[in-house]
């Protein structure tokens, strides 16, 4: 029997444990045939980046991410869905975002995770500022056109 999917969304400063989140979502469940995860991490941009600072408006971020999570749960037959997005100072090699989707079948889990990441990259209300290693001034990161294009698929 497939249980209804109730999305689990967190916006937090703290890091997350990917394995623990997978276990929380799918552990002991016999109706889950596929679990897809995407973990976005901070790159060092060839050694040039000291840190990425992510800012957000809490009420707006929570509301909008929950809305798109509910949309994914309606569009695909998911048995579980977790989205965690961090804010604050994040250094290269550290986690930024986690999307975990579970379903009876892989296609739904893959498609839902892809849809959610396209949304998070282009529309989620987060603002990123890069802090270079060499003491240059920090700069705001502009949205990428290819992220907007990717969202049009859905």
What series of H and E elements makes up the topology? EHEEHEEEHEEH
- What is the first-to-last residue Cα distance? 29 Å
- Enumerate the strands of the largest sheet in spatial order, edge to edge or round the barrel: 1-4-6-2
State the helical fraction: 25-40%
Low-confidence parts, pLDDT < 50 over ≥5 residues?
Answer: none
Given the C-alpha coordinates, what overall shape results?
globular
| Helix run count | 4
Subunit structure: Heterotetramer of 2 MoaD subunits and 2 MoaE subunits. Also stable as homodimer. The enzyme changes between these two forms during catalysis.
Catalytic activity: 2 [molybdopterin-synthase sulfur-carrier protein]-C-terminal-Gly-aminoethanethioate + cyclic pyranopterin phosphate + H2O = molybdopterin + 2 [molybdopterin-synthase sulfur-carrier protein]-C-terminal Gly-Gly + 2 H(+)
Function: Converts molybdopterin precursor Z into molybdopterin. This requires the incorporation of two sulfur atoms into precursor Z to generate a dithiolene group. The sulfur is provided by MoaD.
EC number: 2.8.1.12
């Amino acid at each position: 029997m497939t249980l209804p999917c109730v999305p689990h969304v967190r916006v937090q400063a703290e890091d997350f444990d990917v394995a623990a989140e997978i276990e929380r979502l799918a552990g002991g469940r016999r109706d889950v045939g596929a679990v897809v995860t995407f973990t976005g991490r901070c790159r060092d941009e060839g050694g040039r980046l000291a840190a990425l600072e992510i800012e957000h408006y809490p009420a707006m971020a929570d509301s909008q991410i929950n809305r798109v999570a509910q949309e994914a749960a309606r569009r695909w037959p998911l048995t579980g869905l977790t989205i965690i997005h961090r804010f604050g100072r994040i250094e290269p090699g550290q986690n930024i975002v986690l999307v975990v989707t579970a379903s009876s079948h892989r296609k739904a889990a893959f498609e839902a995770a892809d849809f959610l990441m396209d949304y998070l990259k282009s529309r989620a209300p987060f603002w990123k500022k890069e802090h270079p290693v060499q003491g240059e001034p920090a700069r705001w990161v502009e949205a990428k056109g290819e992220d907007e294009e990717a969202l049009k698929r859905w």
